[in-house]
Amino acid sequence: MTLSFRDGSTRDAFTNYIGAVAWDDAGMLGLSPMIPATIPMNTFNTEANITALLVRAGGMAIPDGYATVTVGDLVAAAQNDMLILKGVHQPGREHITFGFSGSMYHLPVTRAGAPPGTYIPNLTSAITVGSHMTEDSHDGWTNVGR
Question: Which domain of life is it from (predicted)?
Answer without folding.
Answer: Bacteria
